[in-house]
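So, can you check this one?
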Amino acid sequence: MNEDALVHLVDNDPQVLKAVSRLLTAAGYRTQSSGSAREFLSRYEDWMPGCLVLDLAMPHETGLDLQRELHRRGIALPIVFLSGCADVPSSVRAMKDGAVDFLTKPVDADELIGAVRRAVDFDMRQRESAMEEHKLHARLDCLTPREREILPFLVSGKLNKQIAGDLGVVEKTVKVHRAHVMHKLGVRCLADLVRLASRMEISPPAASPPSSGVGPRAN
C-alpha cells in the first residue's frame, strides 16, 4: 500500500530532506519535502493518506508548533519526529500529543522506515474507520423519524408485542418498522442490529414511556 501513501518531510536542512527522501523512496514510498511548517501547510491536502516526518528544532515554527497547529485544524496526520538531540521533555510532549515515534539524528535507516510504516498503517486504519462511520451514519439518515424513534426499542431485545405496548401502537406496526429498519441498516438478525446500534451509540431506552391511557395507535 506504499504507493497509495504520501510521506511529508519537513526539515529546514536541505541535506536532511534529500537523504530522508532518497531512503524512503528506495523503500517504496512517495515523498514531498518542505523546508518549513508554513510551506508544508500551504501544500498539504488532507484527502491523501500518509504521515509526516517532522524536524523538532526549526526556526520560526518548531515541530511542536506545527503539531499544535495540526491539532487546532483538526488534522489527524500521524507524525514521526526527528531531533538532533535526545530532548526528553520535548519527546514526552510530542508523544503525549499523539506522535507515533520520536527518533534522534543521525537516524537509523531501518528505525525510520519502520516508524514510517507504522505511521502510514495507522493513518490507513484511521481513514478506513472514519469511512465506515460515515457509511453507518448515512444508513441511519435513511431511516424515517418514526423508524429512528423505534430503533432503541428494537435493540432492547423485547418482543414486538412488548415494544408495541411501550409505544402505544399495534404489534403489526412494530413488525413493519422492524423490517424496514433491518433492511435500511443492512442487518439480518437482532445481534447484528445491536452491534450496529452500539457503534452508533444508540442504547435501549432507560425506561418505558408512561401510558397515555388511550388505545394503541396504528402508525
Q: What stands out?
A: The mean pLDDT is 88.
